[in-house]
Amino acid sequence: MIDINKKYQTGYGREVRLYADDGQHPYVIHGAVLRDEGWEATQWMIDGRYNQNEESGWDLVEVE
After folding, report:
1. Is residue 20 part of a domain?
2. Rounded CA gap, 15 and 20, in Å?
3. Residue 28 domain-assigned (yes or no)
């Protein structure tokens, strides 16, 4: 389960900002990913997955 008070990045190593964990099911985590063009808003599932059916480089990974 994702804790928006912890630090995450994507599987690709992109910086992530998390804003909320009370979005509409199934994409309850709301935040943004730092892309080459700037910050892009996106959403994740409660377990940090970007896609429901497969692993993705956009999945969230906790930064230690």
Report:
1. yes
2. 16
3. yes
Does the residue 46 lie in any domain?
yes
CA dihedral for 21, 23, 26, 27, sign (positive or negative): negative
pTM: 0.93
- Distance of alpha carbon 9 from alpha carbon 57, whole angstroms: 10
Amino acid, single-letter form, for residue 61: V
Residue range(s) defining the domain that contains residue 20: 8-53
Q: Is residue 62 part of a domain?
A: no
Residue-by-residue pLDDT tens, the chain, 64 positions: 999 999 999 999 999 999 999 999 999 999 999 999 999 999 999 999 999 999 999 999 999 8
Under a CB-based contact definition with an 8 Å cutoff, are residues 59 and 43 in contact? Answer: no
Measured CA to CA, the distance from residue 34 to residue 26 in angstroms comes to 23
